[in-house]
Please model this.
Amino acid sequence: MTLGFYGDSRSDQIDGKVYNYKCLVLYTESVMSESGLGTNVAPWRSPLARALDGNHSQSDSRYFQLATVQADGRPANRTVVFRGFLDETNQLKITIDTRSDKFEQIQYQPWGEVCWYFTTTREQFRLAGKLDAINADCPDSEFQNARQSTWKDISDNARLQFAWPHPGETRANSEGFSPSPPDPATPLLNFSLLLLDPIKVDHLELRGDPQNRCLYLYESEAWSTLAINP
Ligand SMILES: Cc1cc2nc3c(=O)[nH]c(=O)nc-3n(C[C@H](O)[C@H](O)[C@H](O)COP(=O)(O)O)c2cc1C
Model:
């Protein structure tokens, strides 16, 4: 079994008293594979893996808000489910319907930003980057395999929603919401695997006095890490 350790200096304020301590986090194999640690990972992946681990008892810790830009330049924002990382990359996986507004927005403007707040550890990650929707007509076989395996991995209930009537249109008859269950081996044509490839990650930890904030930037094919004022 593979295990990993990460040392981390922390400062917490509890009942008005400040506690400074060195924290040693033990990562189990599941966290290592969750984060893809051991591969070519970005430096923000270990604090994010730690946050996922520290908040796993909260079922909503795998939801985040994804912001996109509408054709008229106005923002659009919605909650989506984190579906893990694409293989050996730092790209976040999200599942979306090609009939949804967000899909159209990404065609006009591929930049997006995720805002992810972890309630137990009281920290926020904002991840900004380009969005790439992998659809049924994507010619790349590796991306197509990823789309297919993600379709297989999501729950029956999540798959069923892709067979529901067109999202955002006038409410359809109830029969439309009782489709026959789609085949787990073959994604429906409107199923899209959306990838967010972050180039800027802003991590804010509310715990600590003062709070800690760290900026990770991907420039000239390398990540930089900078502690900044909260
Ligand atoms: C907890 C929660 C999780 C959601 N997960 C997803 C998701 O993974 N993918 C998705 O397309 N919509 C998801 N939705 C629905 C979206 O928030 C949104 O209502 C829908 O996708 C339409 O968005 P759009 O009109 O901006 O395209 C989720 C909603 C909630 C409340």
